[in-house]
Amino acid sequence: MKRCSGPTVGWRGSLVVAMTTVIVLGVATLVGAKDDGAAPAKQLTGEQLFAINCSRCHTERYPTEFSRVQWQTLIMHMRVRANLPSAQAKAVYKYMLENK
Questions:
Q1: What pLDDT, on the 0 to 100 scale, is given for residue 59?
Q2: Which alpha helices (DSSP H) does the chain contain, by range?
Q3: What digits encode the pLDDT tens for the residues 20-78?
């Protein structure tokens, strides 16, 4: 008795089936992705960055405690210690100068 099996597809047919599956799943993922309507991350102000970063290690300092040059030196030093990006360090420095 001869066993009846389905048609032989071969490696090319298998490759086509696999690629089609990948494409269909990719499109389904893109179509099914929800847009939650979340706005992009809001830029934090210098005051907020100061409160978040500086209070991790010590009590809050007042903008009037140091001169402009002293704040510049302190911000540069603390930028390295607190691993602050340049834009955030500049925002904190600007906040300090505006509130002297």
A1: 86
A2: 10-32, 46-54, 68-82, 86-98
A3: 665 655 555 555 555 555 555 688 999 999 999 888 888 888 889 999 999 999 999 99
75 neighbors 92 (Cβ within 8 angstroms): yes
Using only the alpha carbons of the chain, give its radius of gyration. Answer: 30
Residue 59 vs residues 51, 52, 56, 89: alpha-carbon distances, Å: 9, 11, 8, 18
Give the pLDDT confidence score for residue 70 in this predicted structure.
94
For position 60, what pLDDT does the model report? 80
CB atoms within 10 A of CB 82: 17
C-alpha triplet 78, 45, 75: angle, nearest 5°? 15
Encoded tokens for 66: 């140091």
Number of residues that make up the chain: 100
Determine contact, residues 50/95, Cβ cutoff 8 Å: yes
